[in-house]
Amino acid sequence: MYENDEESIILAAQKGDRIAFKTLYERHIPRVYALCFRLCADKSHAEDAAQEVFIQLWRKLDNYDRRSQFSTWLYSVTANVTISYLRRQKAWWQKAFSIETEADLPDSIACDPDITSLEKHIFKLPERARWVFVLHAIEGYRHEEIGKMLGMAVGTSKAQFHRAKQLVEESIEHG
C-alpha cells in the first residue's frame, strides 16, 4: 500500500492509520534499534528502549513539523527516549557497567560475533562519556544538541567526548 512516498505515509500515520505507522516502523526499526543498542550496550535494554521509542512516536507523531527530515527528527526522539529509559534503569546500569576489561563485558556482548571490536571498546566507556561519544562520533549530533538532550553544558559535552575518545584509544591499544 505504502511503498515510496514517506510524506504520505507520515500524514496517514498522523491521522491514525495503523498500516502507515507499521510501514514507518518497518522502515526505521533497524536504525532506531542500532542507536538504542549503542546507547544501552545491552540487547535486552535496547529492545525495550526501541519499543518505547515507537510507543512514544505513536503518541507524538503530530509533533513532527517537517522542518527537518523525518529520519533526523525520529533519531533525535530515539536518543531522548533511550536516554530517559536508561536513567530509569540506573540501578541496573550502575551494577552492570563497572567494566574495566573485555572479560568484564556481559557474555551476551563479549561472545556476540555481530558486535564489532570497536563497539566492545565503546561499551566499556563510562555512561555519559559513551552517550556523548555515540551521539557525536557515530550519530553526528553537534555538542549543542547533545547538551540539550543530556542536560549538560556544551563544554561538558566536548570534555566527555574528548575523554571518551582517549579511553577508546587506550582500550584499543591495550585490548
Automatic annotation (TrEMBL):
Q: Which keywords accompany this UniProt record?
A: Sigma factor, Transcription, Transcription regulation
RNA polymerase sigma-70 region domain location = 24-90
Look up the domain of life of the source.
Answer: Bacteria
The record's listing under Gene3D superfamilies reads: 1.10.1740.10, Winged helix-like DNA-binding domain superfamily/Winged helix DNA-binding domain (1.10.10.10)
**Coiled-coil ranges per UniProt:** none
Q: Which InterPro entries match?
A: RNA_pol_sigma-70-like, RNA_pol_sigma-70_dom, RNA_pol_sigma70_r2, RNA_pol_sigma70_r4_t2, RNA_pol_sigma_r2, RNA_pol_sigma_r3/r4-like, WH-like_DNA-bd_sf
Q: Which family does it belong to?
A: Belongs to the sigma-70 factor family. ECF subfamily.
Q: Would you tell me the protein name for this molecule?
A: RNA polymerase sigma factor
Instruction: Provide the RNA polymerase sigma factor 70 region 4 type domain boundaries.
Output: 124-166
SUPFAM superfamilies documented for this protein: Sigma2 domain of RNA polymerase sigma factors, Sigma3 and sigma4 domains of RNA polymerase sigma factors
